[in-house]
Amino acid sequence: MSTLLKRSDEVAAALADRRPVVALESTIISHGLPRPRNHGAAIEFETILRDAGVTPATVAVLDGVPRVGLDADGVRRIAEEELSKASVRDLPVLAGTGASGATTVAATAHLAAKAGIRVFATGGLGGVHRGASETFDESADLSTLAVTPITVVSAGVKSVLDIAATLERLETLSVPVLGYGTRAFPSFWLRESGFELDWSVAGAAEVAAVMRAHDQLGHRQGIVVANPIPAEQQWDPAEHDRVLAEAFAAADAAGVRGKAVTPFLLGFIVDASGGRSLEVNLDLARNNVRVAGAIATEWSRMDV
Ligand code: PSU
Ligand code: MN
Questions:
Q1: What is the number of the ligand 1 atom nearest to the C-alpha of 107?
Q2: Do the Cβ atoms of 183 and 163 come closer than 8 Å?
Q3: Which pTM does this prediction carry?
Q4: pLDDT in tens, 102-113
Q5: Is residue 1 a part of any domain in this protein?
Q6: Which domain holds residue 151?
Q7: Is the ipTM, as predicted for this complex, more than 0.95?
Q8: Is residue 150 part of a domain?
Q9: Residue 137, annotated ligand binder?
């Protein structure tokens, strides 16, 4: 393991004993959820895991140290400080200059896998942005999952992305996408995106079985588990469509580009929905954390 990377004592102990561990990202806390709700959410995600007997490993870079597993002050810092949004390519820069950053799905997956963690929960995966054939804006979440053996539980990708292109890229990169109890690929706030998956799994034990087979075949990619939000918790589809159209128009008018696009759209959507999208976002993230905990538990019981 990299000597730069620091695992918390509880994460190191859990991994040494083969007890279940789930990685959690920090960009969702720093840039995806508004203050002060973000701090409560970060604590709650960890608590959901602990209550299920799973060790949480929230990932971030603090003062140049890539950390897998934060203490309470670290969790406070990712929620309260103005941290930069860090993807994989930013990690050596932060480490080399002593800076801090909140890790995206890509950077979290990379560090967690290096630390020996096999399961990771997030809200939504990054993907191919609309208009990417002109802008080339495709999240490094995808290229990182192509080379990082970790299972990521997400509620699909947000409808702000080009979902068809994102699924095509995952196919090209040979990253399996498993619908959790469904073959309908979810679109974050909504249960269904209109895209069908090739595969669905019945539950956590089946995901662990796929992970084991993946390893036995020598595959080094990640696995995406697409976990739709329960029907009674999803956002009203008509309001969703209306707010999204406004968000795109606003991003266009503001000339937002590059890595600022996702946080801009998310912030706009929370405001324009009067906070409704935020409640849905929190519900789906909690739900993903629970499923990731169940998968990590099955994985820890498996003979590998
Ligand atoms: N999706 C969300 N909330 C988020 C993100 C995605 O629902 O906060 C964050 C994740 O950290 C993801 C990143 O890895 O945005 C992708 O950003 P980009 O498109 O710039 O790669
Ligand atoms: Mn981008």
A1: 14
A2: no
A3: 0.96
A4: 999 999 999 999
A5: no
A6: 6-300
A7: yes
A8: yes
A9: yes
